[in-house]
Amino acid sequence: MECRTRPEDGAGEPVGQELRLAEPQSAAEARRAVEELLAERARPGEVSPVSDALLVATELVTNALRHGGGVAEFRTAVTTGGLRLSVSDRSSSFPRVLPQGRAMTPGGYGWPLIRRLAREIDIALLPDGGKRISLLVPLR
């Protein structure tokens, strides 16, 4: 089973460095990798699309660690359309949006936030188990 959104023009091939972490042990480790990859695009003190990319990477890895049995692989690359992120985990369960009106209940905001900030979201079940979530975070 797969879930896809339509690709945007210009999302294309990698134009800069690509990065792969076999099994990051924390969201902070993945976030540092994205920070290093996007260092020249960030402007100190400015909220920018780089901040969106860091937030999406953090949420993807946090969700994989909390709900997906751990991160099996983390990949990222700068493309003509933005930052391509891919996180594989060990669960075949798709992310779900929790019902509104759950006052005073912690959590449940990560996936809606990812869907709001990212484009070209693709969720694919892997042949050996688990799933891969790939997406694009625009950087302009």
List the helices and strands and how they pair.
Blueprint: E1 2-4, E2 14-21, H1 27-37, H2 49-67, E3 71-79, E4 82-89, H3 110-117, E5 119-125, E6 131-137
Antiparallel strand pairs: 1-5, 2-3, 3-4, 4-6, 5-6
Helix pairs in contact: 1-2, 2-3
Please characterize this protein's 3D structure.
This protein is α+β, with helices and mostly antiparallel strands. The chain has one domain: Histidine kinase-like ATPase, C-terminal domain (Heat Shock Protein 90, 2-Layer Sandwich), CATH 3.30.565.10. It is built from three helices and six strands, in the order ββααββαββ. It has helices spanning 27-37, 49-67, 110-117, and strands at residues 2-4, 14-21, 71-79, 82-89, 119-125, 131-137. It has a six-stranded antiparallel beta sheet, with helices on one face. Strand 3 and strand 4 (82-89) form a beta hairpin. The model is unreliable at 1-10 (pLDDT under 50). This is Histidine kinase/HSP90-like ATPase domain-containing protein. One of its GO terms (molecular function) is protein serine/threonine kinase activity. InterPro entries: Anti-sigma-factor_SerPK (IPR050267), HATPase_C_sf (IPR036890), HATPase_dom (IPR003594). Keywords: Kinase, Serine/threonine-protein kinase, Transferase. Residues 1-26 are annotated as: Disordered.
In short:
The protein is α+β, with helices and mostly antiparallel strands. It has 3 helices and 6 strands; from the N terminus they run ββααββαββ. β3 and β4 (82-89) form a beta hairpin.
